[in-house]
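Subject line: Sequence and fold of a protein, written as structure tokens
Area: Proteins and the way their chains fold up in space.
Start of record: The labelled sequence and token lines come straight after this line.
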Amino acid sequence: MIDAASALAALADPTRRQIFERLRGGPRAVGEIARGLPVTRPAVSQHLAVLKSAGLVKDQAAGTRRIYQIDPQGLGTLRAWLDQFWDTALASFKAEVETRKEQ
């Protein structure tokens, strides 16, 4: 089961956030993801394993390579968790506006 706490913990690391952001453009192989990062390819693979266990990325075999991409299901779980705060904020804003209208 994917949970927001695991996803947030995984994204707390700046290198993992960079890796995750690189996948925003679409599926990529480890070598392509690692290019230009200040860590080794094996380190990128380890970071990808953490992101995968948090449900944020998924991979697929392509010959001898693994292709990683953002997992929409995991991202949806994280978004649902964040939306609860947005919904509360909007409800509070609506109540404030309605109170001011009545005055």
The radius of gyration is 18 Å. The longest helix spans residues 72-102. The mean pLDDT is 92. The chain is about 65% helix and 15% strand.
